[in-house]
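Appendix B. Chain record.
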Amino acid sequence: MPFSLWLSLAAICTVGAMSPGPSLALVLRHTLGGGRLPGVTAGLFHALGVGFYALLTVLGLGALMARFPLLFEIVSIGGAVYLAWLGVKALRAGKAAALTPEAAVTTRRQAAREGVLVALANPKLILFFVALLSQFVNPEMSVAARAIIVVTAMVIDASWYVLVAVALSQSRVLEWLRARSHWINRITGVMLIGLALRVAWGLVA
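Structure tokens predicted for this chain:
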């Protein structure tokens, strides 16, 4: 893969990773709930979900979705339900997440599970790969070039969310956020439910 083409790929992946959404809200929530390690874990496992979609893309995800639109609808419905469930869970947390460091309500296992599932359940992520990343794939592309696409997407996504978790877990920042965590929970819940409703509306419209 030419270096100039890789730079374009890296730029698109960076913009995609840094755009606000349920993934950022998830990393923020787990960092607030358990500190640096759960936040970093959520970010790393989110990158695994991103890597899975990147792998599907280089294997022909765009063509598959075009041939079997029902498959995309099924994935979207499942994703919308899961995002709505996470949103309700965040809203119900209320002030319970205004925590002391000794009273964490999240674990690395929970962070890992939700990190990868939020990536897999986010229909916007599927559209991102189908619409943007597919343009870097052609039938004559070598296995090495396809691997570069997958690794680039994973590394950039992981780097961004690990950086977010580390920055937010600084003691002064974390204390400030924890004092306002009930508002962060509410914003996160509304964001997740809003995305779920938007996906559902897109399917019936």
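Further analysis of this model is presented in Appendix C.
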